Amino acid sequence: MSAFPHRHLLGIEGLTPPEVTALLDRSESYVEQNRRADKKKSVLRGRTVINLFFEASTRTRTSFELAGKRLGGDVINMSVSTSAIRKGETVLDTAMTLNAMHPDVLVVRHPESGAVKLLSEKVNCCVINAGDGSHEHPTQALLDALTIRRRLGRLEGLEVAICGDIVHSRVARSNIHLLAIMGARVRLVAPHTLIPAEAERLGVEVFHDMHEGLKGCDIVMMLRLQTERMQGNFLPSIREYFHFFGLDYDKMANAKPEALIMHPGPMNRGVEIDSVVADDYSRSVIHEQVEMGVAVRMACLELLSANLVEAPQHNI
């Protein structure tokens, strides 16, 4: 049996510790591969990967593109702004069209939660969720975990504070699931308006004060304000938000002296994080996260495509 016996990667929720470990262990080998002069392998030779992004993205799309090409696959990027969807075609019609082209992997980002799962039920290929609404962003959580594991040697027993716009963050949800699976303890730190109503049921601690929330933490993970998803007044002002919830050295002093600083990007400097803190390369691992992203996505593409032989055929 495969170390990762799934046809799709739609989320972290529901995975087992061995399955998460298998993805992280395979990713480790690609970190070193990507640092060599010859970065290419032929694992995906003859395979076709389509990046289908219904939302704009720079880091995630480029990372998946690099991952597919470094594995020797044929990679096609589809931007919805230039696709038939802008002309009235439905998501399922797009799925049917793409399915007829016999791709091997679809990497999908969509603004609606659950849309990627729906697509996965209508195509014959593997599907990787590159972020759906406020639901999940599994490869981001995996690259965060890989970054932490490489720096601190473990995930189990760590105290991780996730701070900022939790209610709109798929990154937060995937990280909460993964860290819980691997035995870490998670705290959410944000204003009342940015904490989801179901937060307590996720097995996390909730804080509304940065100084209290960061006490004794091993990891401080900042999130950007997703103003494009906000309808109504979530904050009095950006200036006030930074004063109380923006990460600076005064607030970082409450965490452990060696605590790592993380951010999935893109960063809003002076909003959720101070520039001096973001650029503190003795503690900030933000650029390492970007590097780990390519390795993680290579591992996901390899392990999922290896399961294609047994994939059933679907008719739309």
List keywords for this structure.
4-stranded parallel beta sheet; globular; 5-stranded parallel beta sheet; about 325 residues; alpha/beta; 9 strands; 11 helices; single chain
Cα gyration radius (Å): 19 Å
Hey, roughly how much beta strand do the residues contain?
Answer: 5-15%
N-to-C series of helices and strands: HEHEHEHEHEHEEHEHHEHH
> Can you tell me the overall shape?
globular
Mean of residue pLDDT values: 92
Q: Poorly predicted ranges (pLDDT <50, ≥5 residues)?
A: none
Q: How would you sum up the major sheet?
A: 5 strands, parallel
Structural class: alpha/beta
Number of strands: 9
Strand order of the largest sheet: 7-6-5-8-9
Helical residue percent?
A: 25-40%
Distance between the termini: 29 Å
Number of helices: 11
Map the helices and strands:
Blueprint: H1 17-34, E1 48-53, H2 59-70, E2 74-79, H3 91-100, E3 105-110, H4 115-120, E4 126-132, H5 138-152, E5 159-163, H6 170-181, E6 185-189, E7 205-207, H7 210-213, E8 219-222, H8 238-245, H9 249-252, E9 260-262, H10 275-278, H11 286-305
Parallel strand pairs: 1-2, 1-3, 3-4, 5-6, 5-8, 6-7, 8-9
Helix pairs in contact: 1-5, 1-11, 2-11, 5-6, 5-11
Brief summary of the model shown:
With 316 residues, this protein is of the alpha/beta class. The chain has helices spanning 17-34, 59-70, 91-100, 115-120, 138-152, 170-181, 210-213, 238-245, 249-252, 275-278, 286-305; strands spanning 48-53, 74-79, 105-110, 126-132, 159-163, 185-189, 205-207, 219-222, 260-262. It starts with 16 loop residues before the first helix and ends in an 11-residue tail after the last helix.
